[in-house]
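thought: fold this chain, then report.
action: predict
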Amino acid sequence: MGKRAKGKDRSRRFRSSCLYILRYVVLSSIFALALLPFPHFHTSPFPFVSHAARTGVVSTMTREGRLEVFDDAWWTIQNLYYDPSFHGVDWRAQREQFRPLAAEAQTEKEFYSILRRMVGMLNDAHTRVFAPDEKFDWQRPRFISVGVSVREVAGQPTVVSIERDSQAEREGLRAGDVIVSLDGTPALTIFERRMNEQGGSSTVAAARLRAMAAVFDGAPGSVVKVVWMDGRGRRRETELTRRWVEREPALHIQRLRNGYSIVEFSAFTPVIARDFMRALEEQLSNARGLILDLRNNGGGDAEAMTEIASGFLPAGNSLGQFTDRAGRVALEPRTRSAMLLSPDSITRTDAPLVIITSERTSSAAEIFVAAMERAGRAMTVGGQTCGCVLAIRRAHTLPDGGQLDVSEMDYRTANGVRLEGVGVVPDEKITLERRDLLAHRDRALDRAVELLSAGAQNR
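observation:
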């Protein structure tokens, strides 16, 4: 290739990259859809002017500071919440009830617990509050962990996964083990305490899922004594140290021997959308069928979700509508033939598709699943999804540096179905059981493979 041709090629790539950056800046100012903290968005459409805006960050160690943070949070919800009737909750009465309690809180932890109880009255998984040291970038989640993921299985706090090479793994904890107590307190008692502290959620299942995931919460660096029952019925115990863990969402692809491929990612991000399109062109191009594992997908960027959906559906398909508190359509994403969040092109596949879901499949992931089902593009197996489908324009920073997420948009599918509080029911429901965890068996994945194989035989 001559110098002039190379120069033109570099120029085209540069212009494409610049266009991608411009598009991303514009689109990222709209909103994301995830059950994780969101990008910062400061707005004050009401007459309350925070002290922080005038003099800097306030402290909840003072009564004045606590009231200022409380009022800022209450007014923000009052003016931005997508439902002006607040789901039938008397929002002004909540202020009268919780404001005196907030004023007398003795610690930051107690103060934020009171805020959460008030916000929890809305029964909305997306509207939530974080203390200054709790907030994190949803695209690079940072959280406290002991290397153990716990879910409620048959009413018991059960280990579903162990971080590889972690202290918990070295001490003998395994998937299927049941947590009995933490520091001498029954794990179920801690679970109930977490339920009371956080308040309601979009569904009862979502509230219980979040509370169970938080049973190991505590100060980083602190040690917790864990007692558990292993798969042989033996009572065991050890001490584990809580530590910060950061995990960046990434695309994971596994090729099975029968020519099928499993694709898994925990969030819809621009990077994952780009990597997915490249995978469709390369390692997934000859796949006999795809299994999309969204069991741990908590949502993400609306445009990234639209681009991945565009890999399975023809351009122009509506993915539903987002409406504001006045009932106006704020966004109607449609599948497209060109990517907006990357200079890469859309690659569409006609490969058979099965999607695996669970109660952790949330927000943008639920919209994706509903769109695939509506178009008859995929079979779904696993658990009913979260039912947590509202939208936040951007997070609001509180005067003390804390963070408040407020649902500003409602959502309905292209055929008018509201998913909030309901979720998506899979074609075949498969419940997680302890015996499967102990046997290292994944019945949902096995069934997904069976469905692809049956479809191949019928073609």
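thought: worth noting. The longest strand covers residues 156-162.
final: tokens above.
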